[in-house]
Amino acid sequence: MSMKKTEGGVTAAKGFLAASTAAGIKKNGSMDMAMIYSEVPCVAAGTFTTNVVKAAPVKWDRKIVYDYPTAQAIVCNSGIANACTGTEGYNYCEKTAQAAGECLNIEKYSVLVASTGVIGQQLPMGKLEAGVRAMATKLDNSLVAGTAAAEAIMTTDTRKKEIAVSVEIGGKEVVIGGMCKGSGMIHPNMCTMLSFVTTDAAIDKDLLQQALSSSVRDTYNMVSVDGDTSTNDTVLLLANGLAQNEKIVEKGEDYEKFLEALNEVNTYLAKCIAGDGEGATALFEVKIIGAKSKEQAAVLSKSVVTSNLTKAAIYGHDANWGRILCAMGYSGAQFDPEKVDLFFESTAGRIQIIENGVALDYSEEEATKILSEEVVTAVADIKMGDCMATAWGCDLTYDYVKINADYRS
């Protein structure tokens, strides 16, 4: 059995349950808390924001992931980020974990917590603890429960983001499922980006962390909506071993299969975040090919995908290639602009815009048609080697400003 996409999200893997509730944290009364629980303890891995201003949940989760052997539950709230909240905010993380631990009959240090929403406000702990108690009684392993949890962690997201894949490892079916949220303040450096991934694979904790750190570099860290690295960025990966494959304890064929499936999940979720950027009408993909190193390609692709002028041109369906070459030029990566070939492609077709740094006699009408699709790709060949990288972002629209001007109200 090769890797295949399967139904569901965080409850697709064996032994994982989920629940959600409306705890009253959001002013509009919508679902605003989610819980993920494993029937048995898991090894945990995590990657976190590189922003010096780190939200309280990031500090709590780093402690659990780095200092404790196992974790068994995740509690997430939306509406308030619990960032810039001092000692009180950190204590609220511990209180949330304590409440969940009591309800689930597990140690508080096996409960991971996450928050997303407005920075600088304290959590209403009465509502949060009541929400934890309500969810503990509703935990369910159904795919529906997983989907509801994915919906409960949304803020300015316009749609839920979840996926699951299965792969055969050591003769056993291993499932990896995940959910994430993220729409604005997205420029991960491990936005407000939260991703929770669950798997029933049996794997060593250190190898799980290595797999996640490796995967994050090529997936979430290649996404940018607006250039703002959030205070709350968190990716958590829990593995409970219930697939009963022979435990992965070294890098080899089994590890590579696991990593490939994990990349599939994380790439899909990363692209969901980019395509659902605040106010976006298009997912904008930038591929740099012909690079001398992957690092060079990554720097160039991210520079283009974060260029506001390029993003505005994509919104206007305008093949303004000069902005792309300009963004490559200030990226810090060295290349010869007089060797660059540039193409635009989408489901409407493919067109070459420049060859060796000079514009071709292309049809503006054809280019506009290609740039009018929901997924648009720019491919730049810099003819220096055989390495490549892909970054994902979105167009920049009037609605991005509207959403962020009115965010707190």
Automatic annotation (TrEMBL):
Where along the chain is substrate bound?
A: T155, K181, T192, E278, N404, S409
Q: Keyword set for this entry?
A: Acyltransferase, Amino-acid biosynthesis, Arginine biosynthesis, Autocatalytic cleavage, Cytoplasm, Multifunctional enzyme, Transferase
Could you say which enzyme class this protein belongs to?
transferase
E.C. number(s) listed in UniProt: 2.3.1.35, 2.3.1.1
Give the CC-aspect GO terms: cytoplasm
What are the recorded GO MF terms, alphabetically? L-glutamate N-acetyltransferase activity; L-glutamate N-acetyltransferase activity, acting on acetyl-L-ornithine as donor
* Recorded metabolic or biological pathway in which this protein acts: Amino-acid biosynthesis; L-arginine biosynthesis; N(2)-acetyl-L-ornithine from L-glutamate: step 1/4; Amino-acid biosynthesis; L-arginine biosynthesis; L-ornithine and N-acetyl-L-glutamate from L-glutamate and N(2)-acetyl-L-ornithine (cyclic): step 1/1
Q: Which reaction does it catalyse?
A: N(2)-acetyl-L-ornithine + L-glutamate = N-acetyl-L-glutamate + L-ornithine; L-glutamate + acetyl-CoA = N-acetyl-L-glutamate + CoA + H(+)
Main location, first listed in the record: cytoplasm
Compartments where located: Cytoplasm
Q: Which InterPro entries match?
A: Arg_biosynth_ArgJ, ArgJ-like_dom_sf, ArgJ_beta_C
The question of whether Amino-acid biosynthesis is a record keyword is answered with yes
- A GO biological process this protein is involved in? ornithine biosynthetic process
Instruction: Name the residues annotated as catalytic in the UniProt entry.
Output: T192
> Site positions for Involved in the stabilization of negative charge on the oxyanion by the formation of the oxyanion hole, renumbered to this chain?
T116, G117
What is the purpose of this protein?
Answer: Catalyzes two activities which are involved in the cyclic version of arginine biosynthesis: the synthesis of N-acetylglutamate from glutamate and acetyl-CoA as the acetyl donor, and of ornithine by transacetylation between N(2)-acetylornithine and glutamate.
NCBIfam families listed in its UniProt record: ArgJ, PRK05388.1
SUBUNIT field: Heterotetramer of two alpha and two beta chains.
Give the protein family: Belongs to the ArgJ family.
> Could you tell me which PANTHER family the record lists for this protein?
ARGININE BIOSYNTHESIS BIFUNCTIONAL PROTEIN ARGJ, ARGININE BIOSYNTHESIS BIFUNCTIONAL PROTEIN ARGJ, MITOCHONDRIAL
Record protein name field:
Arginine biosynthesis bifunctional protein ArgJ
Protein's organism: Blautia hydrogenotrophica (strain DSM 10507 / JCM 14656 / S5a33) (Ruminococcus hydrogenotrophicus)
Taxonomy of origin reads: Bacteria, Bacillati, Bacillota, Clostridia, Lachnospirales
Q: Which gene encodes it?
A: argJ
